[in-house]
Amino acid sequence: MSLQLAQALERRSLFSTSRRKALAVAAAVLVAGGGFAYSHGMLSRRTCGFVSQSPSLNGGNLEKFSATKKKSGTLIGRKVSLKRSGLRSVRALVGILVAQMGSRGMKILLFLASIAVLRTTVSNRLAKVQGFLFRAVFLRRVPLFLRLIAENLLLCLIQSAFLSSTKFLTGNLSLWFRKILTDRVHTDYFQNMTYYKLSHVDGRISNPEQRIASDIPRFCSELSDLIQENMNAICDGLLYTWRLCSYASPKYALWTLAYVFGAGFVTGALSPPFGKLMSKEQQLEGEYRQLHSRFRTHSESIAFYGGQDREGSIIKLRFNALVEHLSVVLHTQWWFGMIQDFLLKYLGATVAVILIIDPFFSGNLRPDRTTLGRAEMISNLRYHTSVIIALFQSLAILTFSSRKLNRISGYADRIRELMLVVRELRIAGGSCMIQNKDSGSYFMEANYVEFDGVKIVTPTGNTLVENLTLKVDPGSNLLVTGPNGSGKSSLFRVLGGLWPLVEGRIAKPGVGSDLNNVIFYVPQRPYTAVGTLRDQLIYPLTSAEETAPLTEEGMRELLRNVDLEYLLDRYPLNQEVNWGDELSLGEQQRLGMARLFYHKPSFAILDECTSAVTTDMEERFCAKVRAMGTSCVTISHRPALAAFHDTILSLDGEGGWSVHYNRDAIFQPPSSEEGLENGRIMSAHRNDALTVKAFFSTVKKENICQVPRSVDSYIGTVLAKSPPLDLQPVQTVPRLKLGHQSVPQRAASLTRILVPSLSGQQGARFLAVALLVVGRTCISDRIADLNGTSVKYVLEQDKAAFIRLIGVSILQSAASSVVAPSLRYLTAQLALGWRKRMTLYLSNIYFVNNAFYKVFHLSETGIDADQRISQDVEKLSSDLSGLVTGMVKPVVDILWFTWRMKMLTGRRGVAILYAYMLLGLGFLRSITPDFGALTSREQQLEGLFRYMHSRLHTHAESVAFFGGGAREQSMIEARFTALLNHSRDLLKTRFLFDIADEFITKQLPHNVTWGLSLMYSLDHQGNRASTSVQGELAHALRFLASVVSQSFLAFGDILELYRKFLELSGGISRVSELMELLHAAQQEARPSSSNSLVLIDDNLNSARSMVTEGNDDIVFSEVDIVTPAQKVLARKLSLHISQGKSLLVTGPNGAGKSSLFRVLGGLWPIASGSISKPMSSSGTALSTGLSQEIFYVPQHPYTALGTLRDQIIYPLTLDEATASIGETEKGNGDKALHLLDLRLQSTLESVRLVYLLEREGGWDATANWEDMLSLGEQQRLGMARLFFHHPKYGILDECTNATSVDVEEHLYRLAKSLGITLVTISQRPALIPYHAMELNLVDGEGGWELRSIKSGSS
């Protein structure tokens, strides 16, 4: 039975000095016993086994090195295991926090402890004052009441300040804990390229960004809350144990301890493994968010392939798995919550009443027969009740803490595992990478680069190169050749320390675990950091690390060398830009060249870094590097580069290698017998190597820069060219814009999505919530009545009636223990259902009509759609469900208890109640800060911090080669610092407001309650000397106090709704902005007929451009190609591509070659003109994107999630592919799959990749294909995808520049033999003979020229 706090006068004169000592001992025993119960409750928990990482959908978890490979010197020395760790991880993390707490953290803890002591002291004094107030009301002593109510008001204000300070300090403690743990992880994560090895070499932990950006803040928040709650519980336990023993027998304290200990033991034995459940939940959340982040990174390739349906289905499957697990978690929390609430909350209150009542019936607290004596007894009863219930609550909180520790142990296990793994990798990278004691391999300092008996082994254990011995002296240049996948780039992964040195010795300048400023790496796709243009040139240095600051004139000179001087005019010097989105690949490669010129290293590793630039730029670059005195180690398939190298290293892909010196005689390839070893599957790989070696060996140095036939000899007549530049401006393209809706309008729109109707499951849940709220209100009303009745029976000394009342109280406790957890369960189910509904709604428009691409690339303000759809939707759904149930409960309570109050106080009391509500609401509204904007900013910063970690994960290899870990750490920590500073500012903003909010909504209403109680007592009629009248008055006052308190609490909840809505408005705005942009993306393309698509600019309200289907040719008719930034790339482009007449698209970097196909594919809108292209083979009208008859192959082919088979059939699913085989081959089921595999094998053979079947383990093998395959293998796999789909047209966007010349020519001949008309973007003159026309985008300023190509060379 829930009784309100009562006052009791201290009767210290009743106790002798010896009795006081005995009571002090009893208090000590109680505290010790409570601590033992607390410890036992924690240690008796079921230990939660660590949830090992499940394979990701793409099979991206790399296998560990085997034990035999460990002996050979691999990186992984041992495997971290946290199975059945229980609370070990929590203790380990707490140890780290204590060790690094510092003066700031200790101050926060001391302030929290001080406030806990003061809060308990004030609470005890409040209990006394309120007991005195009850006595004054009962005796109708108005002057005494006024003095007491003034003191009560002051104490309430102080209590409000303490509660607000506690929230403020707890929030700051959580942020401090987060900073400690994040900094601890970052310290190891960014050293020795651990960020790279964690995902690309080790493979034990997937999605480290989820653990850093999500698990750590959740753990810190719950741990700080737990510390604060336990501090308060300990202070309450100590004080109220002493108070209980000071005027009653110690047996009551001992019985209290016994009950709490027993209840804690039972709940501990029945507790589910919440730690395991939380760990699994975070794992699934991380995988789901990582899929969205991956989708964002590859959005353009997916849009070109038309793979959004397949990607969307994979993301939805992962989301459904998450929802199913969350449902299990909610159900588990529901049934266990009923048990725990019954034993430790509701039944505990009844047991407390049973324990305390004996002294009032037969002990020293029994009332005498005078009115003053009975008033004294009522005051004592109220205070005695408050003491025992506060003691119960404090011990229950300590017992509850074990469950909370068990819950956060799930987070702790994941965080600790991350810490152990990154520390292990960091230590291994710092010591084993220099010297491997097991194998004897080591690095040594030298002014040259030398490999001596080096063995190159992949993280999966495949040997690429055996016993490599090679020396590169200063001033010499090495060209590395070989077939795709032979280990060319892997050679430098070992040199740079990204992969372990398994065997042999390496000498290099600047011994360490990474490449440095002496050896500089330039990859094919240079990493571009988010920052200014100057930051790109000096990367990985920061401004503080520069020896001589780079001036604007110096920047201009560097950029002039690579024809990028215009970037200084296009972008302000201090403007931070995501350069990877702004620049074309060729521009990025030239920026990488400028970066090399700035650093002027002794050695430069050039990994296909000129594949996207013109031959002229490539030769200028090589000449400039030679003039600097930099020795080049180049990976390339271009024979022309042999002129700049004196040594050629050829790898055969099977462990073999050979060195050819240009000054020597022509290289003789191995014999045919050697080429045929290892069987048919390997012969293709070996033959590739032989062809490359032979090709390079037959080209002489003096004419190696010349192509077999002069480029000019291919140039035919001019077919068309851009019109003269006129003064008429080119029409702009529309961009996605946000609507101008208010927060209430956006909330209404979301409501229509979340609650389309009140029928079905949604209506049933709302009805259940309403019924539970009504039920809880009824129970609260009965408890209020029981409170008054219990006081009456004690006053009348009717023990038998009181015992019967105890039985009723137990029944009500059982009912409450069902209703409260069920209401929490339904609230959580509402949140989960709304999250599912909102996610489904957004997904249905996110994955359609390339809306995802347009949101990322065509909106006026770039937004983090992946963060909003995965994290913001979850938070918004949770907050909305809490707001809805928070609205229903106070409304029901107000209606119910207002009616009850009217019966007791008449209209006067009701008028006071409503007047207080209106005044309080107006006051709070006038002082409420803009929590919506502050919360939205906090979510934005959280998303940016997570995105920076995801971006590092994506570009880890390039960052590691550059040695940019420190630079990335500084950028990420700058975002993290901004997030922490904003969170602290938000806490400061809330601090003062929370004082007023707590006082107005919680504390002040109690004082109004006392005023109404006094008015009721003054109006009460009857003989005050009569025991029955006194009993009725005591009952009425106690019941009135409960009714009025419930009414004011309900009004306080309503007053809080305004603040909650303001905080919620930030989440509403972020999700609504995404929804508005997605709707705008859908409305941008409006079908005007069954076979055409009209793009409409709403501002002009007229159709000005169109894409039509039905023609077998691709036709551009006076099309203006304009970027979303309104830069004109081609004016009035007119072009006709017929089947069999392939087109070569050329032009400088950034001229708009790829943009031409973004317009063709519908990714970008057309400024003006019209485009006609083939109808899809199914005959259906085209929405957006390239049709099935036009297939796109990008330079870096997108590797899908799934099996090796999925890589070729993408974007089809396996069912769709087998169904297609069933239609064409008359097969079905297993036969269709067999026929499909035969066709796929033939396709792999045609691109010389059939060896992948054996190497990777067959068609059903899954892997992280982007890491597993070299770029050349990925490009050939992209061509295999083209040949499998066999479209009429193939758009080849520099998609063979990482393959050897002979392979490239073979692929083009094969495409021609299949009847595929090619539209090629390339800088390679050797590809001219395979095309009939050339479209040259002259300058990137709108000029173009279409010429015919003379035949006869192919």
Topology:
Elements: H1 17-43, H2 67-71, H3 88-99, H4 102-139, H5 142-189, H6 194-202, H7 208-247, H8 250-270, H9 274-297, H10 299-305, H11 308-361, H12 371-431, E1 442-445, E2 449-457, E3 463-472, E4 478-481, H13 488-495, E5 503-508, E6 519-522, E7 530-531, H14 533-538, H15 552-561, H16 566-570, E8 577-578, H17 579-582, H18 585-599, E9 603-607, H19 615-628, E10 631-635, E11 647-651, E12 657-661, H20 672-676, H21 679-697, E13 715-721, H22 743-754, H23 760-796, H24 799-846, H25 851-857, H26 865-905, H27 907-927, H28 931-954, H29 956-962, H30 965-1019, H31 1027-1084, E14 1085-1089, E15 1092-1097, E16 1102-1109, E17 1114-1122, E18 1128-1137, E19 1143-1146, H32 1153-1160, E20 1168-1173, E21 1190-1193, H33 1204-1209, H34 1214-1225, H35 1229-1246, H36 1251-1256, H37 1265-1268, H38 1271-1285, E22 1289-1293, H39 1301-1313, E23 1317-1321, E24 1333-1337, E25 1344-1349
Parallel strand pairs: 1-5, 4-10, 4-11, 6-9, 9-10, 16-20, 19-23, 19-24, 21-22, 22-23
Antiparallel strand pairs: 2-3, 2-5, 7-8, 11-12, 13-25, 14-15, 15-16, 17-18, 17-20, 24-25
Helix pairs in contact: 1-7, 1-8, 1-12, 3-12, 4-5, 4-7, 4-12, 4-30, 5-7, 5-12, 5-30, 6-12, 7-9, 7-12, 7-28, 8-11, 8-12, 9-11, 9-12, 9-26, 9-28, 11-12, 11-24, 22-31, 23-24, 23-26, 23-31, 24-26, 25-31, 26-27, 26-31, 27-30, 27-31, 28-30, 28-31, 30-31, 34-35, 35-38
